[in-house]
């Protein structure tokens, strides 16, 4: 089913990351629509594209951002899949795009500590593997995969405990995807919660729990070994009244 976007690994099938029960903590959010997540959990939103997943993430993110107090102590951060529309700031440098969310913490009396910003940028360049000779280069100068790494750095450089990701691997190469999977898992182990919309089975298989959407509503909640392409497809096509 092309709308699901099945992507297999080199072994021929998507591999599931093993959930770590000790990593996952108390519930940190629950929406009226039934979407829920725990501390340190990687939660996937799946199903056929255009069935309300992106809208659910947008509502969640907007409900936890936008207040003035959130600038210094953000409750959620966002990683966009559409870099051109929702992600990069094209007139700014790689460094400033990466450190944007951390600027309040790097500022004193309204002035940004440039040395501290450069140090933070260098740290994330190393940690996330941004390939560039100079972080002061324009954001559009590196490859699309490296631009996406900058967006991850921007989100993770903040102190936000919840990371909202709207199809963040769109258009990036396999190597970048694998690096991102490792980074997401490491951040989850440190206590961050991820909500990840994707239509690709390989990406959904990285999640601890998956909510399948159909017609704007959750049609199934899958965990552990239940997270398979067959179960996702079944929930995506269930007739109204048969779900759950």
From TrEMBL:
Q: Which keywords accompany this UniProt record? A: ATP-binding, Nucleotide-binding, Repeat, Transport
- By its UniProt entry, which PROSITE patterns does this protein fall under? ABC_TRANSPORTER_2
Q: Which InterPro entries match?
A: ABC_carbohydrate_import_ATPase, ABC_transporter-like_ATP-bd, P-loop_NTPase
Q: Which GO terms describe its molecular function?
A: ATP binding; ATP hydrolysis activity
All residue ranges annotated as the ABC transporter domain in the record: 15-240
Q: Which Gene3D superfamilies match?
A: P-loop containing nucleotide triphosphate hydrolases
SUPFAM superfamilies membership? P-loop containing nucleoside triphosphate hydrolases (SSF52540)
Is Mitochondrion one of the keywords?
Answer: no
Protein name in UniProt:
ABC transporter domain-containing protein
